[in-house]
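Priority: medium. Attachment 1 of 2:
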């Protein structure tokens, strides 16, 4: 809670900081933030309800992005997830209302449930080639979602559903792009068969 409700628009952390605790910037007035590459661990709700936060550069030393890291960061438009991150935990980007597109690096192997739930402006997400497991309802209430790119040649497991509420919540213009050599594997897999009509080669 070091900067909780702080009105500072920018905060500089010196190189050498290795860990940032839970809720450190809870409800802070930050507009942009660059994390030193010495940071190897962050805890949940780090930027909780930082409603003015527009741009974040994360540390290249991170392996996990914990639960609700960017919860209710409604102005966030730019986030680069660094190569090296392997897991992204529960609802890490919950209700980031201004986020339009995001690319996950090849290092990301697992995302947990509802990663982008409530991201109403989100249109495009690219999963890198290393993705193995996708949690339930990553795009719950993402009404403008229309392009999902999966670079993995082996279809990742999908826990229950992409949108969860019902098959009728799948956007009519949804397109799911996968490697050409893997189209049939995706269409016939237990996790992705329900989306066969939306799957095509990139």
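Attachment 2 of 2:
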């Amino acid at each position: 809670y070091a900067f909780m409700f702080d009105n500072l628009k920018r905060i500089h952390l010196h190189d050498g900081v290795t860990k940032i605790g839970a809720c450190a910037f809870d409800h802070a007035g930050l507009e942009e933030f660059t994390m030193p590459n010495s940071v190897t661990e962050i805890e949940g709700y780090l930027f909780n309800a930082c409603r003015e936060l527009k741009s974040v550069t994360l540390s290249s030393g991170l392996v996990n992005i914990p639960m609700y890291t960017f919860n209710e960061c409604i102005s966030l438009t730019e986030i680069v997830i660094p190569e090296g991150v392997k897991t992204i935990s529960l609802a890490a980007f919950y209700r980031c209302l201004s986020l339009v597109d995001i690319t996950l690096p090849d290092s990301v192997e697992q995302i947990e449930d509802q990663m982008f739930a409530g991201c109403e402006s989100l249109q495009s997400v690219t999963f890198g080639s290393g993705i193995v497991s996708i949690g339930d309802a990553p795009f719950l209430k993402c009404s403008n979602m229309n392009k999902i790119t999966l670079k993995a040649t082996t279809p990742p497991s999908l826990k229950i559903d992409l949108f969860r509420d019902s098959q009728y919540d799948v956007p009519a213009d949804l397109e799911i792009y996968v490697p050409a050599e893997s189209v049939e594997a995706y269409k016939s897999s237990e996790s992705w068969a329900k989306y066969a009509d939306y799957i095509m080669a990139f």
